[in-house]
Amino acid sequence: MKTFTRKLMSVIIAASFCFGLASCSKTPAASSVASETTTAAESKASESETSAAESKAEIKTVTAGKLTMATNATFPPYEFHEGEKIVGIDAEIAKAVADKLGLELVIEDVEFDSIIAGVQSGKYDIGCAGMTVTEDRLKSVNFSTSYATGIQSIIVKEGSPIKTIDDLVKGKYKVGVQSGTTGDIYMSDAENGGVGEDRIDRFKNGNDAVIALLAGKIDAICIDNEPAKAYVAANKGLSILETPFKEEKYAIAISKDNEALLTAINSALDELTKDGTIAKIIEKYIPTK
Ligand code: GLN
User: Fold this and answer.
1) Can you give the residue range of the structural domain that contains 118?
2) Is 24 part of any domain?
3) Same domain, 107 and 138
């Protein structure tokens, strides 16, 4: 596992330096989900295959035969670039779901805050981006059953006077967030424990926020715990506050007009949970041993 962790870290380091660059050296592609999951799926009783197959017939997607997924690939280990490929927990879970539904997965890398609108308007079939289920988002899209959890964390520079969320809120500090994320929503809300609108600096992605923090343009970043860990591991001089807040559930966003797809994705997720595929994918990127 140590070797794997080192490999993952080097991939994340490479990924964080490669954003925006046209020619990053290619690292070996992550092993495909299909080959890892086929055996597990095959060994399952045929009833579980039947329910995924049953729902297949009614599914309509943006492009026939394809499952178009919108994500923002600056969110390691859920989605990030490995050379030209987008890999990570979400990419692999979506691939496993698409395989179950007999669809080819197509990943579109877009800005996070355009994902919900794109799913709602029928541009993408799904949004799969470490996306937290919120009451507000549920007004615009449906969410699948949750496949993972996240916790909001605060990244600061090492030696920062900010030691707790309280320090952050009470001081006059500037907080970087990724635009439209739950970190943005919490931190903007001064009435409910955030720093308030005028102390927020919004970035297109987590990587840009890290660059600003390193340059001293902001004092802290509010972001989900796993990308926070990955960014801190990939950049010297950063640390995470020991006081995380707000636990969240991640799920796949699907258009409210596509109930058949919601049903099919939920049965695929159920099967992939039962046969251990999802746990295996998460363990691959977030090793516990
Ligand atoms: N979980 C957060 C949200 O849904 C952040 C997701 C992300 O930045 N990809 O808002």
Assistant:
1) 66-147+251-285
2) no
3) yes
How close is the Cα of 127 to the center of ligand 1, in Å? Answer: 11
8 Å CB contact between 256 and 249 = no
> Residue 162 maps to which CATH number?
3.40.190.10
pLDDT in tens, 220-279: 999 999 999 999 999 999 999 988 778 999 999 999 999 999 999 999 999 999 999 999
Number of Cβ within 10 Å of residue 34's Cβ equals 14
How far is the C-alpha of 271 from the C-alpha of 283, rounded, in Å? 18
Whether residue 161 lies inside any domain: the answer is yes
Residues 101 and 230 in one domain: no
Which protein residues are within 6 Å of ligand 1, measured from CB?
A: 72, 75, 112, 129-132, 150, 178, 181-182, 224, 248
Specify the ligand 1 atom closest to the Cα of 248: 1
Question: pLDDT per residue over 79-98, tens digit each?
Answer: 999 999 999 999 999 999 99
Q: Which atom of ligand 1 is nearest to 72's Cα?
A: 9
pLDDT for 62: 96
Count of the separate structural domains present in the chain: 2
Instruction: Kindly give the number of the ligand 1 atom that is closest to the alpha carbon of 78.
Output: 9
CB 132 within 8 A of CB 223: no
In a domain, 40, yes or no: no
- For 120, 124, 145, 165, 197, the CA distances from 70, given in Å and listed in that order, are 12, 6, 18, 32, 28
Position 98 in a domain: yes
